[in-house]
Each structure stands twice: as C-alpha cells, then as structure tokens.
Design goal:
The protein is of the alpha/beta class. It contains 17 helices and eleven strands.
Length: about 450
Amino acid sequence: MAVKVFISATSYDMEECRPAAYKAIQEYGSGVAVTMENWNSEYRPAPEVCHDKLKQESSHYVGIYGYRYGWIPGADGALIPACDHIPDAVKKSITEIEYYWARHYQKPMAVLIPKRGSKIDLDLKRRADLPNPQAEDAAVAQKAFHRVVKNEGTIMPFSDVVELALQINKVVNKWQDDGLRGIAREAEPGGGGLRLQQEILQLGREDQVRQFEDWVDEVDASDLVRAACFIVHADNAELGTEQAVQRLAMQYDEISGADIKRITFNVDVLWQGQGLENMLCVIGNQIENGWEPANLTELTARLAVLLGSSDVLLTILDAQRFQGGLTAFRNQFWLPLVQSLPNDLANQLLVLVEHENIIDENCADFYCGKDALDDFDDAYKPEHLILLPELKAFTEKEIRSWLRKRPGFDGQKAKLQAAALFGETNGKPQSLYIKLQDLS
C-alpha cells in the first residue's frame, strides 16, 4: 500500500510550497498526498475534518513551517477535538495543533523549515504579513512554535522549492520502501498487495487500450520504420494519466511476448523547463550507466543497436513541462530520431508520453488519431504523434464492471459499492484509486 502523507502548512504564504510538496509525494514519489486541496468531506467544523484526516486517513506527516502563524480555531470559538495533550490549545494555530496531533498519534514525521538567509526564507518572512499583516503576538507564537519543533526533533532545512520537493520526495520514498518490506510477502503467489495495484490499473480505459493495440499491430506489420510515439493526455492531473501509461505498458508486455528494454524520463521538478540536452543525459544513463550521448545522433545509433536484440519502451512523464512543450519535443527529439532510424529494425521502439494539459488537436501535420488508424496506409507517418482518446473521469458503470471481477462482489453488492464510490469521488481516478486500495 502507498504511504498516505498528511501535508501541514499554512496556505497564504505557502502558495508554491504546498503544490511542490503534493507533487513530490504523489506525482514524483510513491505516496498519496492527504491535503486540503483534494479533500472530499461533508460539511463539518474544519478542526474536526483536519483531525480525522490526520488520524484516520494518514499514515505519515509532513510539516512545512514558515513565518505566518495562521488561523487560530479557538479564537473563533471552534471546538478542537483530542486536545487534552496540547498546551493552551485554544490559543494554537491549526498548523501547530496538527503537529501535536501527529506526535500524539505517533505518525512518522518530517518537518521542513526554510534555511536562514536563503531567498525563500526572505520571501516567506515577507509573505507572513500577506494578505494582511499578522498580529505581533501571532509572530511571537510562530517563533515559539519553531523552537518547540527544533527542540523535539531533527528538522530538514530547504533553500528553495526544488530542494523542498527533493527532501520530501526522498523521505517519502524511504517510508514507502520501508513499508514495502513489510508487505513483500503479499506480492508472492497467493498474496494481494502489489497484485491489487496491478488489478486496479485494469479499471476502464478500454478505448485507449483497444486503439493502442490496433496501432501497435499496424505499425508492426507496415513497411515503415517500426517506431511509434503515443500521447496519453488529459486536461488535468486528477484524471490518472500516469496510471494510464502504466496500464498501456502492462498491455504491451502481454502483446509483445519478447524482452523489452525499459527507459523512463520524468520531466519532474528537477527538469522542469529543461530541454533536449538533459533528456539525452537521463536516457543515455539508463541505456548504460554513466553514458551521456553528445547529441541525438549518438543516441539514435545506440538505440538502433538495442533494437537489434529487443523491443524498447521509452516512457516520458509530465511532458507538458518539457521546454517548448510537445512542439519542441516532436521537432527536437521525435522527428529527427524516427527519420534517422533504419526501416529494417528487428524490433519495435514505442514511446509513451504522459501529458497533463489540453492539446491542440487541429494540427494535422503534427498529430494523428483514430481517423489515421482507419486509413493507416494513406494517413499515417512515423513522425506523427499518435493521440490516444483523451482521458475522462470513470463512469459508475466502469467501476461496477471492475468490482464484479473482484472476489466477494456479487451483482447487487458491486452495484451498491460502485454507486457509493462514484458518489464519493465523482469518478476522478486519483481519488478512486485510493478508495479501491482501501477496499482490500
């Protein structure tokens, strides 16, 4: 199971830090972020919701503390649950209260504070008085909170948002690795942990899988170069693009029946805004440890050698961050690569590109879709980027169909459970995947 990490931080001053923490945990890391930005909760007092999310729905805790003290629930007369162990709880900010809750419930914790004198340290001090200056006693209370945190454990300093994300990503992946050791037996025959994750990926996406398989067959049987680049896309990050890429990779395992060399390039927070040079460096290092191709020509030659003995599956995640976007990716990488590969390759090169943004589908020379598949010989060119159907939220029917394949879910139980899950998640894949893991 993925670790579920509660993110505790003020909102006004942490407008860059909170999203970076979320992405470090859930998109670049191996965990699930529990944060107010994605909560689905009934109408209840905020302290009660925060408490229950931390106690009941989180396995770990990350606190990011700047210089703004934040909302004090007790000052507004809000009731604070489970506060007997919190000194002067009615005078504490919700962020400090969450810290005490996490310690009380013995959640594994990571605490991050800006490095003194760094640019982000100065920025957070300035933002502490935005949108309105905080009271002097609030600033004093925040300093006292910093002292408590530093005295009770080891903090992780960060000098910018990138280092913040790296620190969080590193600790979350360690938590996940430690947890996987404990459930490793479930991955063996007869166990259910990792197998369940693979089964969850089988939910829906029939249109994407069907078109992907048809495209692979057509490319493999054609006289053109045996290479194709697929775009898995949605208009936002909640629609499960990364999971859809994983699903197609699993499908390719089944239909290939051959050895596959896997290469992954994640245009994450480290590479955001970077272009071809860094991409070549990462791909080259995965082909051979320490190897950095001088240019695309060198990489193409090495890929041609690899394709003599095995299929190659290149996965590119978060491609919307590539410098220049998909246009630059196609013109700088895919177009010259596919034009340089020989037509008589013994095996296939497939590229799966994850893209979490709206795509302009009106550029006929750039993309191709189902129409080109139906008229493959006349309409398809290898330099095209193949657009698979845009990902949408799951329907209640798709959830019900998946549940009926699970042990213990007969028709009526699957129907009721699907209705409940759809009502809680609106079919949004990221929320739904978490709920389905909890069903086990």
